Amino acid sequence: MQATRALRRRWAQSLEPWALAPHEARALRVICESDGARLSDVAAHLRIAPRSATEVVDALQEKGLVERTPDPTDRRAVLAVPTESGHSLAEEIGAARAQVSRDFFARLEPGEWEHLTTLLRRLIAD
């Protein structure tokens, strides 16, 4: 748990140049990965209340990273769709997050890294 917290802290710090909170970055990733998502899907992925997802998407929209469009399959629903800026930022954030992870785990020798990976995969296997 301490290692996870330390990694999360470093990841949150890496978001500072973009003035994004971790939950906003996660929401942007969800929206970009599906190239548009209903607010209920964003809420489910982030494990938050739909009302909270609305607030997160509002913040992303204010920053010009997403826009709302009608869902073509259900005119009662709205999709949060990434803007070009949103896609670009999601890629930058993904690269920064990967670098934070590489730096964090760089203290391990290659054999230790492989052993840790094997153990963690065993723990999360269904």
Task: Provide structural commentary.
This protein has a single domain, classed as Arc Repressor Mutant, subunit A, CATH 1.10.10. The protein has 6 helices and 3 strands; from the N terminus they run ααβααββαα. It has helices at residues 2-14, 22-33, 39-46, 50-62, 84-105, 110-124; strands spanning 37-38, 66-71, 74-82. α1 (2-14) packs across α5 and α2 (22-33) crosses α4 (50-62). Residues 1-125 form the HTH marR-type domain. It comes from Occultella glacieicola. InterPro entries: HTH_MarR-typ, MarR/SlyA-like, WH-like_DNA-bd_sf, WH_DNA-bd_sf.
Radius of gyration computed on alpha carbons: 17 Å
Q: Give the helix tally.
A: 6
Strand order of the largest sheet: 1-3-2
What is the helix/strand order?
HHEHHEEHH
* Overall pLDDT confidence: 95
Low-pLDDT segments: none
Largest sheet: 3 strands, antiparallel
CATH topology: Arc Repressor Mutant, subunit A
CATH architecture: Orthogonal Bundle
Task: Note the main attributes of this structure.
single chain, about 130 residues, alpha+beta, Arc Repressor Mutant, subunit A, three-stranded antiparallel beta sheet, about 65% helix, MarR/SlyA-like, MarR family transcriptional regulator
